[in-house]
Amino acid sequence: MNTVVVAQLQRQFQEYLVSLYQQGFLDNQFTELRKLQDEGTPDFVAEVVSLFFDDCSKLINSMSRSLGRPESVDFKQVDSGVHQLKGSSSSVGARRVKNVCISFKECCDVQNREGCLRCLQQVDYEYKMLKTKLEDLFNLEQQILQAGGTIPQININ
Amino acid sequence: MGMVTESQFHVLAVDDSLFDRKMIERLLQKSSCQVTTVDSGSKALEFLGLRESNESDDPNAPSSSPVTHQEVEINLIITDYCMPGMTGYDLLKRVKESAAFKSIPVVIMSSENVPARISRCLEEGAEEFFLKPVKLADLTKLKPHMMKTKLKKESENPAKEDNAVLKPEIREEEPSVIEILPLHQEVEQEPMLSNNKRKAMEEVISTDRSRPKYNDITTLV
């Protein structure tokens, strides 16, 4: 094991992860999520995150359909979708996605179709952005493990 | 002294969201509980062996005697509030109305902070109300409630093993010890690898031996 390489990768990982918090992509709940992963369940975070992104995709599609025709918008359905999305983004620590959901709910409550459409677009953008970021993060993790190192536990306050 | 050879606490988790089920399952496992998850209140009742009406056609149904025929020993039920069909509140009521199961502690989870909802649930007999997202630290509050039922059952019927059809795993290869501690202290069991058995209430992160802790790189955001 090349300890220099491992140390370098670990540093990279740490810096990247911290930046994701600093830029508001992630919040403390992501830290909680990482706590649930251990030697017995090394893929837990990746699995949960993957489930979350699948949910995002599905919900965004169905809400898009509900918002599709101006004369017959099913706001109940949209509200239900936003509620789910807000819940899961909150559980995962996906801060930006969650924040969009808050605005989204407000638009839904007053039956503002235009507002909802804008929020829908934003949610779509945010989850895809986060997905890319986390893919890069998990990639770094893999590189560390392949180089024989361990993934640092980082305390973010 | 209070040394008991113990099977793990078995929790029944109810949530209609797959995502949330996965989360609560892991949280509970990490807190050393055995977990069964179901996606609805009616499935929860079914699992307990408490039938809803008109289900005699189902060949897989457990026998319909309503009183003491409990298929599985459950130490706690944790349920989402908002579910289609039977809500968590409805489930809570059903459990508390049943002679056989009213002693099982019930905890409600919700993503919404509605004080009226919370007090309604607590009044109906819920032990705790957790706001989602549920954290590991929240689950430490469950141990005292589960301990009560465990101790009660041990004293009522020490030979209960024979009656249960499905029994939580009894860890015979690793003699487990429960120390009965005064309130506000807990014992947590690590079923897998480590030897340390006892944790104070504040510390909820399990010792992660293979990962070096970079305490000097604590970074403030």
From TrEMBL, chain A:
<keyword id="KW-0597">Phosphoprotein</keyword>
<feature type="modified residue" description="Phosphohistidine">
    <location>
        <position position="83"/>
    </location>
</feature>
<dbReference type="GO" id="GO:0005829">
    <property type="term" value="C:cytosol"/>
</dbReference>
<keyword id="KW-0902">Two-component regulatory system</keyword>
<dbReference type="Pfam" id="PF01627">
    <property type="entry name" value="Hpt"/>
</dbReference>
<dbReference type="InterPro" id="IPR045871">
    <property type="entry name" value="AHP1-5/YPD1"/>
</dbReference>
<keyword id="KW-0007">Acetylation</keyword>
<feature type="domain" description="HPt">
    <location>
        <begin position="41"/>
        <end position="144"/>
    </location>
</feature>
<dbReference type="GO" id="GO:0009927">
    <property type="term" value="F:histidine phosphotransfer kinase activity"/>
</dbReference>
<keyword id="KW-0539">Nucleus</keyword>
<dbReference type="InterPro" id="IPR008207">
    <property type="entry name" value="Sig_transdc_His_kin_Hpt_dom"/>
</dbReference>
<dbReference type="GO" id="GO:0000160">
    <property type="term" value="P:phosphorelay signal transduction system"/>
</dbReference>
<protein>
    <recommendedName>
        <fullName>Histidine-containing phosphotransfer protein</fullName>
    </recommendedName>
</protein>
<dbReference type="GO" id="GO:0043424">
    <property type="term" value="F:protein histidine kinase binding"/>
</dbReference>
<dbReference type="GO" id="GO:0005634">
    <property type="term" value="C:nucleus"/>
</dbReference>
<dbReference type="InterPro" id="IPR036641">
    <property type="entry name" value="HPT_dom_sf"/>
</dbReference>
<keyword id="KW-0932">Cytokinin signaling pathway</keyword>
<keyword id="KW-0963">Cytoplasm</keyword>
<comment type="function">
    <text>Functions as a two-component phosphorelay mediators between cytokinin sensor histidine kinases and response regulators (B-type ARRs). Plays an important role in propagating cytokinin signal transduction.</text>
</comment>
<dbReference type="GO" id="GO:0009736">
    <property type="term" value="P:cytokinin-activated signaling pathway"/>
</dbReference>
UniProtKB/TrEMBL annotation, chain B:
<feature type="modified residue" description="4-aspartylphosphate">
    <location>
        <position position="80"/>
    </location>
</feature>
<dbReference type="InterPro" id="IPR045279">
    <property type="entry name" value="ARR-like"/>
</dbReference>
<dbReference type="InterPro" id="IPR001789">
    <property type="entry name" value="Sig_transdc_resp-reg_receiver"/>
</dbReference>
<dbReference type="InterPro" id="IPR011006">
    <property type="entry name" value="CheY-like_superfamily"/>
</dbReference>
<dbReference type="GO" id="GO:0007623">
    <property type="term" value="P:circadian rhythm"/>
</dbReference>
<comment type="function">
    <text>Functions as a response regulator involved in His-to-Asp phosphorelay signal transduction system. Phosphorylation of the Asp residue in the receiver domain activates the ability of the protein to promote the transcription of target genes. Type-A response regulators seem to act as negative regulators of the cytokinin signaling.</text>
</comment>
<feature type="domain" description="Response regulatory">
    <location>
        <begin position="10"/>
        <end position="147"/>
    </location>
</feature>
<keyword id="KW-0902">Two-component regulatory system</keyword>
<dbReference type="GO" id="GO:0000160">
    <property type="term" value="P:phosphorelay signal transduction system"/>
</dbReference>
<comment type="similarity">
    <text>Belongs to the ARR family. Type-A subfamily.</text>
</comment>
<keyword id="KW-0932">Cytokinin signaling pathway</keyword>
<keyword id="KW-0539">Nucleus</keyword>
<dbReference type="Pfam" id="PF00072">
    <property type="entry name" value="Response_reg"/>
</dbReference>
<protein>
    <recommendedName>
        <fullName>Response regulatory domain-containing protein</fullName>
    </recommendedName>
</protein>
<keyword id="KW-0804">Transcription</keyword>
<dbReference type="GO" id="GO:0005634">
    <property type="term" value="C:nucleus"/>
</dbReference>
<dbReference type="GO" id="GO:0009736">
    <property type="term" value="P:cytokinin-activated signaling pathway"/>
</dbReference>
<keyword id="KW-0597">Phosphoprotein</keyword>
<keyword id="KW-0805">Transcription regulation</keyword>
